[in-house]
Amino acid sequence: ALSSNHPEAGLRVYVTSDSSDVYEDSFMKVARSPDDAHNFHPTLLLLGIRLGIDRVTPVYRDALKAALHMEQSIGIAG
């Protein structure tokens, strides 16, 4: 709602509720300009996932480290 109410910020937001699945068609509806299908806007992906109950489950550690090292990553919140 915040990004929708302030389009001058130039940021769009795509949110998953309780899954890490990102569906291309849904994402494109958010990221693309309605008047120009080839024009993409900066889009923040917020993934609602649980990585463990009281700590990060070991099976996720390497993938999480790799994702956080990506230039596009802005971090993690919990």
Automatic annotation (TrEMBL):
Catalytic activity from the UniProt record: [protein]-C-terminal L-amino acid-glycyl-phosphatidylethanolamide + H2O = [protein]-C-terminal L-amino acid-glycine + a 1,2-diacyl-sn-glycero-3-phosphoethanolamine
InterPro entries in UniProt: Papain-like_cys_pep_sf, Peptidase_C54, Peptidase_C54_cat
Job description of the protein: Required for selective autophagic degradation of the nucleus (nucleophagy) as well as for mitophagy which contributes to regulate mitochondrial quantity and quality by eliminating the mitochondria to a basal level to fulfill cellular energy requirements and preventing excess ROS production.
Main location: nucleus
Stated name of the protein: Cysteine protease
Compartmental location: Nucleus; Cytoplasm; Preautophagosomal structure
Residue span, Peptidase C54 catalytic domain: 3-78
Catalytic class of the enzyme: hydrolase
Enzyme Commission no: 3.4.22.-
UniProtKB keywords: Autophagy, Cytoplasm, Hydrolase, Nucleus, Protease, Protein transport, Thiol protease, Transport
Pfam families, per database record: Peptidase_C54
GO terms, biological process: proteolysis
Single Gene Ontology MF annotation: peptidase activity
Keyword match Thylakoid: no
Gene: ATG4_2
Source organism of this protein record: Cryomyces antarcticus
Keyword flag Transcription: no
Protein family per UniProt: Belongs to the peptidase C54 family.
